[in-house]
Amino acid sequence: MSAPQQIIEVKELVKKYGDFTAVDGISFGVREGEIFGLLGPNGAGKSTTLEIIETLREKTSGEVWVGGFSLDEHPEQIKKMIGVQLQSSGYYPGLNLTELIELFAGLYNRKVKPMEYLEMVNLGDKAKVRYKALSGGQQQRFSIATTLINQPRIIFLDEPTTGLDPQARRNLWELIRKVRGQGATIVITTHYMDEAEYLCDRVAIVDSGRIIALNSPDALIDELVAGGFERPRAVKKANLEDVFIQLTGREWRGD
Ligand code: ADP
Questions:
Q1: Less CB within 10 Å around the terminal CB: N or C of the chain?
Q2: What is 6-248's CATH superfamily?
Q3: What atom in ligand 1 is closest to the CA of residue 209?
Q4: What distance lies between CA 59 and its chain's CA centroid?
Q5: What is the percent of the chain where pLDDT is above 70?
Q6: How far is the CA of 23 from the centre of ligand 1 (A)?
Q7: Any idea where the ABC transporter domain is (predicted)?
């Protein structure tokens, strides 16, 4: 493979669990600096694909390169350049946010100023608060801060806004854009199409372990329309979420 602008290359990736094929020959590339979305229904194979690229799960066959390093030959090099969001159970519930950032920094062998990371995700006022006392949105923002500690070139976010209220989701979108603005490449899974449309430069739609479409959201929509698709009824200029946001405001809250 010789396309240097592709920071991730996945070729004919297969993952079987016993007789069941969860990932069925997936190939795609992610360009440096883009926000790339893996979309698909539950069980489509998105998390399995991500976890294989993250070196956290064994593949059955296929090839993966990250930053030019082969997953088979140099998983340690790959680990050094990626940031992965932990599930919330991964945080010591009794430690406060400053202590948790220091703990992660220690794991990565880096000296950091915890406050810089907390302020980046708008949690500066929670520095002495324990992780378990945070709201859902705050926990998600904190987990994004922890992915940044080893200054990764690529950040993987697996359903980062699931379960959040509309304001918290929008706050997180802005945070994800900000992180990309600092030069990181972002790979995100979601089943919120508005989120993918707003955030992603390109998306791969995954179904039953296969990629069934891959393009920019705009191009995919244009293709559908060019094929004669029309929405069954006139679309209003706003939706209920617009009403909700308009009425309740966009400012930061206890999200
Ligand atoms: P997604 O992230 O798209 O929801 P997953 O990658 O989590 O999908 O799962 C893909 C399929 O593989 C699902 O049918 C799931 O039940 C199955 N699967 C995931 N992990 C395992 C496992 N450890 N053992 C057996 N089957 C699994």
A1: N
A2: P-loop containing nucleotide triphosphate hydrolases (3.40.50.300)
A3: 10
A4: 20
A5: 95
A6: 9
A7: 8-233
| Candidate from 15, 16, 17 with most ligand 1 atoms within 8 A of CB, to mutate | 17
Reported confidence tier of residue 2, pLDDT bands at 50, 70, 90:
very low
- Give the distance (Å) from ligand 1 centre to CA of residue 210: 13
Element (H, E) at 119: helix 114-120
Using alpha carbons, select from 229, 224, 163, 211 the residue that is nearest to residue 36.
211
Which among 125, 9, 115, 123 is positioned nearest to 71, based on CA atoms? Answer: 9
In DSSP terms, 36 is beta-bridged to 187, 202
Ligand 1 contact, 42 CB (< 6 A): yes
Ligand 1, pocket-test mutation among 42, 48, 60, most atoms within 8 A of CB = 48
Ligand 1: which atom is nearest the Cα of residue 17? 25
- Mean pLDDT of the chain, nearest integer: 90
CA dist 56 → 50, 86, 134, 203, 212 (Å): 9, 12, 27, 23, 25
